[in-house]
Amino acid sequence: MAAEDDSDRLVSSAETPDTQYRFRGLTPGRYTLSVRAVNSQGQQGDPASTQFSIAAPAAPSFIELTPGYFQITATPRQAVYDPTVQYEFWFSDTQIADIRKVEPPYWRRGEQT
């Protein structure tokens, strides 16, 4: 797999007898993935390639608040539904002034898909 950041650097290379492979730890950016079959004699077939990108998901378009009995349910809503997006929820007794600096005394309250 090569990164498309004007360097075309090789990000990862692997051989596996399996029919699938999981690439982990990819940073945001554009990539080209090439795959080829190799038989038991080491003969290589032609490669098949595809391009893809990894980017941070969009912020929710709005947050739906549903009141309950001594509780409130916060449901993030997307402009375009993406089932792979998860949300992290943070809570503080005071307004969080800078979301980039979420740290104690704020508490992580969980995730929602």
Automatic annotation (TrEMBL):
Kindly give the InterPro entries that the UniProt entry links to this protein: FN3-1_GpJ, FN3_dom, FN3_sf, GpJ_Ig_second, Ig-like_fold, Viral_Tip_Attach_Protein
UniProt domain Tip attachment protein J Fn3-1: residue ranges:
3-57
* PANTHER family linked: FELS-1 PROPHAGE HOST SPECIFICITY PROTEIN-RELATED, GIFSY-2 PROPHAGE HOST SPECIFICITY PROTEIN J, PHAGE LAMBDA
Q: Which Pfam families match?
A: Ig_J, Ig_J_second
User: Matching SUPFAM superfamilies, A to Z?
Assistant: Fibronectin type III
Which parts of this chain are annotated as the region Disordered? 1-23
Tell me where in this chain the Tip attachment protein J second Ig-like domain is found: 59-104
Task: Please state what the protein is called.
Answer: Fibronectin type-III domain-containing protein
